[in-house]
């Protein structure tokens, strides 16, 4: 598997992947249009603070990570906003290898850690815990 920065020519395939993963269980997301998701991905590519990665297996886009460099008191961390692996490739070590490749790349960039939010009780929680993330007990997620 090859981990690389997401390229402009991969945006449409990335939007297809995003929709195919997040429209299924457990997320069941609904989208107004393909263009809505394509715009989301393009917005993640618009500024230099964003770092977006693609996982390729035999030239096929099988993983997507949209994120950003986020300053904090102890340096700069990589915030994973969206992470997905093609459904047919889930449970086969692709996601773990993808995360490891991302971690290697952000380390080369001098970033000091990774952080993300996920829903409690979904398979993603177990996946991230298995891959070395831990729950930050003093944090909650708020929205307005």
What does this structure look like?
With 144 residues, the chain is α+β, with helices and mostly antiparallel strands. It has one domain (2-130): Gcn5-related N-acetyltransferase (GNAT) (Aminopeptidase, 3-Layer(aba) Sandwich). Helices cover 32% and strands 27% of the residues. It has four helices and five strands; from the N terminus they run βααβββαβα. The protein has helices at 11-22, 34-44, 94-108, 123-130, and strands spanning 2-5, 50-57, 60-72, 75-85, 114-116. Strands 1-2-3-4-5 form a five-stranded mixed sheet. A hairpin with a 2-residue loop joins β2 (50-57) and β3 (60-72).
CATH level 1 class label: Alpha Beta
Coarse morphology: globular
Total number of helical segments? 4
Q: Strand-and-helix sequence, N→C?
A: EHHEEEHEH
Helix content percent band: 25-40%
Strand order of the largest sheet: 1-2-3-4-5
CATH topology: Aminopeptidase
Mean pLDDT level: 93
Tell me the number of strands: 5
* Name of the CATH homologous superfamily: Gcn5-related N-acetyltransferase (GNAT)
Whole-number tally of structural domains: 1
Biggest sheet layout: 5 strands, mixed
Distance between the termini: 39 Å
Radius of gyration: 15 Å
CATH architecture: 3-Layer(aba) Sandwich
Unreliably modeled segments: none
The chain-level structural class is alpha+beta
Proportion of beta-strand residues: 25-35%
């Amino acid at each position: 598997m090859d981990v690389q920065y997401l390229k402009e020519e991969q945006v449409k395939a990335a939007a297809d992947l995003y929709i195919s993963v997040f429209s299924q269980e457990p997320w069941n997301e609904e989208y107004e249009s393909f263009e809505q998701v394509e715009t989301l991905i393009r917005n993640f590519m618009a500024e230099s603070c964003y770092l977006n990665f693609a996982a390729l297996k035999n030239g096929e886009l099988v993983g997507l990570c949209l994120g950003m460099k986020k300053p904090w008191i102890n340096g700069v961390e990589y915030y994973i906003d969206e992470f997905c692996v093609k459904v047919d490739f889930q449970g086969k070590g692709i996601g773990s290898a993808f995360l490891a490749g991302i971690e290697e790349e952000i380390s080369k960039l001098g970033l000091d850690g990774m952080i993300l939010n996920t829903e409690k009780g979904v398979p993603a929680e177990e996946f991230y815990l298995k891959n070395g993330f831990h729950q930050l007990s003093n944090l909650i997620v708020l929205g307005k």
